Known about the structure:
The chain is α/β, with parallel strands linked by helices. The chain has eight helices and eleven strands.
Amino acid sequence: MEMNHVLVVEDDKEIREGVEIYLKSQEYEVFQAADGIEGLEVIEKEEIHLAIVDIMMPRMDGIRMTMKLREKYDFPVIMLSAKSEEVDKIMGLNIGADDYVTKPFTPMELLARVNSQLRRYRMFAEKLRDREENQNIHVIGGLELNEATVEVSVDGEPVRLTPIEYKILLLLMKSPGRVFSAEEIYERVWNEKAINTDTIMVHIRNIREKIESCPKEPKYLKVVWGVGYKIEKQA
């Protein structure tokens, strides 16, 4: 299993090193910084999965550091605050921190917050990755086109298309229900001005022969007479 990297940004050396000991006992790799400037330098050099950031620090405090890192990074940030820093704590949450722990805190409380934030972030990243992968798979009824593998299938059976046929089908499947004129299909697929679009009709006929069980009564690839072609939406 991949080791998580945690950055501890705290000007109090004893607290910083104490937190590191407890985190390392849970198999985390730990990086230290004494203020916000050092913390940002570590983030630029290392892959960080979570940062524990004290609010009150010299040179650059935790609020400003969190604002800066949020310009480029989305990993969880847990802020450390004293009870007297309630306003700063609220500000920290408003500008991008994910959680806070009030000093003095127990090691077990901090570990629980770290584990919880990393678990939530991992689940979010997995869902985002799944959604991105699914965006590359277009499914209309039993017709499926996978952009990642450049494969087309109908009812689970693979369909062999030429590169041009594949590009035309991809264009239509990305916008089910939308009618594309022959000129627009030509210009989108060939990336040049349409002069003679007769070839589009031939390619459409060939695609139909390959994806339709009954090409004369198409289920997927429809002609809108006088307008163009579309992939029919399926219920």
